[in-house]
Write a structure and sequence with these properties.
Aspartate Aminotransferase, domain 2; binds pyridoxal-5'-phosphate; PyrdxlP-dep_Trfase_major; aminotransferase; 17 strands; EC 2.6.1.11
Length: about 375
């Protein structure tokens, strides 16, 4: 009630109030339990309230909560070192911010500074956030058009279309920004050939390749970063969502083709704060120690197999990679998403017809059995 009264109504309410979470489950204010295959928009990568993250945040909260970028900080320093052990080859410097949109905003600025060109190639159905630059890179006209004029010089090519990419990267283009697996746009994996071509053309023509791994990063697709599985090395990699298991954080990693930056060229008050860094350090440590990406790779195979075996004329296609799963229906997904919630399973949409699952990476085989059973029941 209070939220409806004082909020802006920017989110269609799901009608329940979540008050507690543990692992892959959340509980509402009436004590009902739900298997959370939304992970709070793909954020709770280690599951809700993972003990290592709770411990790291609690300890850090009692030690130092705020520290600006003008001062060194032990947590930030250690997180740089930790990230260097997991980032794709060639990425050697990192900027910390607070969200995915901010990470992409920074990436676009860094690319412009480096190349002196303001042209950007983005993909149709791509999603990169809601701030001005990130929104310009986002394709969906209903998100973008009410706010035009946005940034000049953006071209949107069909995703996975190598010829269109080739034609679009002119000598005015400073950056190509792509998701490795499109999330919001319907859960569509990029082909290896397309992503390799993007890397090759960027190098040949003096543009920078920005990979947006805000949703696909930190183990979600079965490797630490989704680009590892396709064997490409971006010039800029953007991260957020799962990086700190729910604590707000974004980051941008830069390779050698990106210019050195000088003081004042970019900045943020909260970015790289001790609490976020402590939560991210715990996340990276647990991901590595338990090899969760490998578990995602293994169990998601089983999940896909079971979902594809659901006998339903309502399912057009089940696609995705790891725990980015899209079930495209032949009709609108909203009633089925509501029906799943009624039965104790939280899922998302991606566009009108796609049911999207972004579960915590700690999902067990029993959880997969439960999710499949509910989906089978409602899609029958
Ligand atoms: C691929 C991708 N990039 C960027 C964003 C924006 O991130 P944020 O909502 O943290 O600004 C999202 C959010 O869904 C995303 O999926």
């Amino acid at each position: 009630m209070l939220e409806a009264r004082y909020g802006l109504g920017l989110y269609v309410s799901r009608g329940i109030t979540l008050v507690r979470g543990a692992g892959a489950y959340v509980w509402d204010s009436d004590g009902r339990r739900y298997l959370d295959c939304t992970a709070a928009y793909g954020v709770a990568s280690l599951g809700h309230c993972h003990p290592a993250v709770v411990e790291a945040i609690s300890q850090q909260a009692a030690t130092l909560i705020a520290c600006s970028g003008s001062f060194g900080n032990d947590q930030r320093a250690q997180l740089y070192a930790d990230l260097m052990t997991v980032l794709p080859y060639g990425l050697t410097r990192v900027f910390f911010c607070n969200s995915g949109a901010e990470a992409n905003e920074a990436a676009l600025k860094f690319a412009r500074l480096t190349t002196g060109r303001h042209g950007v190639v983005a993909a149709q159905r791509g999603f990169h956030g809601r701030t001005a630059g990130a929104l310009t890179a986002t394709w969906e006209p209903k998100y973008r058009e009410p706010f035009e004029p946005l940034l000049p010089g953006f071209t949107y090519i069909p995703y996975n279309d190598e010829a269109a990419l080739d034609a679009a990267i002119t000598d005015e283009i400073g950056a190509v920004i792509l998701e490795v697996v499109q999330g919001e746009g319907g859960v569509r994996p990029g082909t290896t050939a397309f992503l390799h071509r993007a890397q090759q053309l960027c190098r040949e023509r003096g543009a920078l390749l920005i990979l947006d791994e805000v949703q696909s990063g930190f183990g979600r697709t079965g490797t630490f970063f989704a680009c590892e599985a396709v064997g490409i090395e971006p010039d800029i990699l953007t991260m957020a969502k799962g990086i700190a298991s729910g604590f707000p954080m974004g980051a941008v990693a830069l390779g050698e083709r990106v210019a050195k930056l000088s003081p004042g060229q970019h900045g943020t008050t909260f970015g790289g704060g001790p609490l976020a860094c402590a939560a991210a350090r715990a996340t990276v440590r647990v991901l590595k120690e338990t090899n969760l990406p490998a578990q995602v790779e293994r169990l998601s195979g089983l999940f896909f197999e079971r979902l594809r075996a659901i006998p339903s004329h309502r399912i057009r296609e089940v696609r995705g990679r790891g725990y980015m799963i899209g079930i495209e229906l032949t009709e609108p997904a909203a009633p089925y998403i509501a029906a799943a919630q009624e039965r104790g399973l939280l899922v998302l949409n991606a566009g009108v017809n796609v049911i999207r699952l972004l579960p915590p990476l700690v999902l067990t085989e029993e959880d997969i059995t439960l999710a499949t059973m509910i989906l089978k029941e409602i899609l029958r």
